[in-house]
Amino acid sequence: MSQRALWAWLFGRTARIGWLHLVVGGALLMPFYLLATVAIGPLTGENSPFLSVPGQFYAFVAVLPLVAVFGLLAPARPLSVATIRSLGLASGRADGFPEGPARTRAARVRTSGWFTLHLALGGLVSGASLALTPFAGVLVALPFVPALRNSDWGVRELEGKPWLVALMPLAGILAMLLLAAASAGASALLARWAPLLLGPTPADRLAAAERRAADLAVRNRLARELHDSVGHALSAVTLQAGAARKVLDSGRADDVEFVREALAAIEDTTRRTVGELDAVLGVLRRGEDAPEDGTGPTLESLDGLLARSGVPVTRTGDDDLAKVPEAVSREAYRIVQEGLSNALRHGGAHPVSLHLAVTADRELEIVLENPLPEHPAPVRPGGGRGLRGMAERAVLLGGRTEAGPHASDGVWRLTARLPLADHPDTGPR
């Protein structure tokens, strides 16, 4: 270690902050220590409030179990973490410390170990700082102040030994260096053990992972809602607007009614989509921890969706889907909506067939078919999330989806099967 590195280790900013952290530990130890002196005094036969050196040692040893018991209490970890962060003892690692109190037994035991270590080392370094600093000052001044050699400091024996008196400043400086080394070593030990004793336990890591998973689920859900609702609306509006423009360009007066219907469909679609967008943004404004309110279009609104889809749809299967649970009905609506968006985007205004039925296995079966386009539409940059979103919706309900071209039939077929049984995330219906 170079001289500069040694000096930085002994007296650098990190060393000074570490010493201050130890002094805080010593200050926290004082109430426990004073309580211990009250109990140790009668046991050692010392009636003075200032115990002898052995009595102080006994009090220090006796106070450590009391500190350890206090460290088991829940507020000990937030207090320790706040001290570390405010002083920057474990710089770069303090952000990984848990915020709240220690809840599990393992976390409390680890916190108690840290709290005891901090206060014990802090008490030793603080006591040494209070005792050695003035003593070292006396030793440094001893050759230059003759009166000190005749004082009650216990150094009268140095009279007549000038060579020994001359060495006293070196002894004082050495004492301060040893104190600085002890402080730097203690603070380095605390910085090393802080992440191990105050860092997250396996239970804390599991809780953090669950929070991240819940956050990701919320974001994915909102992303699917925005993709399916807004994506479908934009596809339908684009097709309707394009068809109306072509009619106007043709200049045929008898097609004015078609343009009027197209504009009405655009108006209705955009108004409905703005409402759905407001609902999703409302969830974002409430925060990610806002409970799921269970709102959203269901299969009861399917007729309106088919009428505004922008493509002719032939529907078969069950007309009465009231027995479908609400959670399944909402996801089924979004799957049909995204399927129609894909058909409109890639197949144009060609007819689409939709089959909805409840099977004997108590599954809602959705089959949507549209003709394969002669010239497939180019894939949009960043696109391709619709099929994945539909699959995610089905998996969350315990179902499955299949989608792809069937060249033998000349169609693109989307199939989804959603169980009607109750789900833990939705509750009984």
TrEMBL record:
> Which key words tag this protein in UniProt?
ATP-binding, Kinase, Membrane, Nucleotide-binding, Phosphoprotein, Transferase, Transmembrane, Transmembrane helix, Two-component regulatory system
**GO CC aspect terms:** membrane
UniProt-listed SUPFAM superfamilies: ATPase domain of HSP90 chaperone/DNA topoisomerase II/histidine kinase
Q: Which InterPro entries match?
A: HATPase_C_sf (IPR036890), Sensor_HK_TwoCompSys (IPR050482), Sig_transdc_His_kin_sub3_dim/P (IPR011712)
Stretches that traverse the bilayer = 20-45, 57-76, 115-144, 164-191
Enzyme Commission no: 2.7.13.3
Q: Where is the Signal transduction histidine kinase subgroup 3 dimerisation and phosphoacceptor domain?
A: 219-287
Which chemical reaction does it catalyze?
Answer: ATP + protein L-histidine = ADP + protein N-phospho-L-histidine
Instruction: Please tell me whether the keyword Cell membrane is annotated for this protein.
Output: no
Superkingdom is Bacteria
UniProt KW Phosphoprotein keyword: yes
Name the Pfam families on file. Answer: HisKA_3 (PF07730)
Q: Which GO terms describe its molecular function?
A: ATP binding; phosphorelay sensor kinase activity; protein dimerization activity
**PANTHER family cross-referenced by the UniProt entry:** NITRATE/NITRITE SENSOR PROTEIN NARX-RELATED (PTHR24421), NITRATE_NITRITE SENSOR PROTEIN NARQ (PTHR24421:SF10)
Query: What is the name listed in the Swiss-Prot or TrEMBL entry for this protein?
Result: histidine kinase
Q: Which organism is it from?
A: Streptomyces finlayi
